[in-house]
Amino acid sequence: MADDFSLAREGSQDVAMADADSGTMAGNGANGDAGILRSVEQPSGSHNSFSFEIKPDPDSASKPPSSSPLSAKMAKPVLKKGTASTKKKPKSAKSKSSKKDSATGNGLADGNDSSDGDEIDNGPYCLCRGPDDHRWMISCDACEDWFHGECINIDKELGEKLIERFVCPNCTDGKLNYTKYKKTCSLAGCTNPARLYSKKDRSVFCCNEHCDAWWSSMIGSLPTKSASKKALEVLTQEDFMGLLASTADQGGWKIGDKPFGNLEGLWANGLPTRPDVLSEVEQAFLQGSAAERLALGNEIVQYKKMMQMLDWASQRRQSAIEAGKFTKDSCGYDYRLDVISVRHAFAAWVDSPEGQATFTTGKLDTPVEPGDGEPLTRGTCEKKRCKAHNGWYKILTSAVRNQVKETATAAAGKLEAEEVLRQEAETRFERRQLENNWVEVLD
């Protein structure tokens, strides 16, 4: 049985190899590319039959046979006519992290190394329009191009630690697009960023150790008490440590607002209570400024009365509409409103008997001058959809409010100037009192 099986296998392999050679030499035959199947049956009926299938080699099936002794690598592939196509090599995707993690050496990778990490991306990148040759690169946040650190004079340590936002020279405009750097640690010689860019444990130092070192250096620069010859004039280490220890309960140190003390009761109603506080020029300035502020205050009072008169005119129009004398499209402009926004004319009307009666009763009644028409509508514009007075209430009210705002701003400016002058005069007077300087005039 074993001998029969061996003979059958050898015979089937011979037949298969012969058929494979004939199929290959046929080249373009109908069955040249098909698989080779041969079956061998044992002559004895009592034995089982065996079938064998020999599949062609994928490499040999895709390549045509060559009778030349050249190797398969030197053989030219057979191209089908009309089926050739050009496929562009896709640009490899790059990320900012991969660029920063790339090698910083200037040399190229070894040509014998076939790993993917040593492949060079031809780019172009950077100002030099060169490739990514594994030198350290940084990405521009404006144009998203990559730049060699050597080409823009930025080393790897500076770029990875202290650059918060990088903008290349091509995109830098000095206004919106520019490179932002982080603040370095306050300890001399440290190039690490300060802890100012996080919400927790903010500090001008990069770590607590550098903070302690800075304070130790500061205290060490002060003289000791034994080495100090003038203990009252020179700040010693002991004095400095005492000052630092006393700020915990007092809430810290700050610059005082009153460098020469504070003399209480120096001013009364804007005027000094002691002589020699103000000069003659300063007194004249304060008096003139106070008079101007008073005049501005009177103007604001007049503007308030103008707004009251506008409200009364609007109420009179509404009363005429409710009485059926006017419709909603009627103008209702009262001709006495011509004095609105004209201070002198309005002041003259307010001082007239009609104006005094109006502000006494708090109502804009019928004009005292004789005329035709109903009492509710006399002295008003009775046109419908009047273009000359269109939106008269809103326009006049807005104009008066703007005048009030401008006048109040001018008055506040004068008051601020007066306050500055008083503070300067008070500081000068207090300094003279503390210094106790005097000049003796000799005849």
UniProtKB/TrEMBL annotation:
Pfam families: PHD (PF00628). Residues 86-97 have a biased composition (Basic residues). Signal peptide: none annotated. Residues 41-51 have a biased composition (Polar residues). Residues 61-85 have a biased composition (Low complexity). Residues 1-116 are annotated as: Disordered. It is found in: Nucleus. One of its GO terms (biological process) is positive regulation of DNA-templated transcription. PANTHER family: CXXC-TYPE ZINC FINGER PROTEIN 1. This is PHD-type domain-containing protein. It comes from Neoarthrinium moseri. The lineage of its organism: Eukaryota, Fungi, Dikarya, Ascomycota, Pezizomycotina.
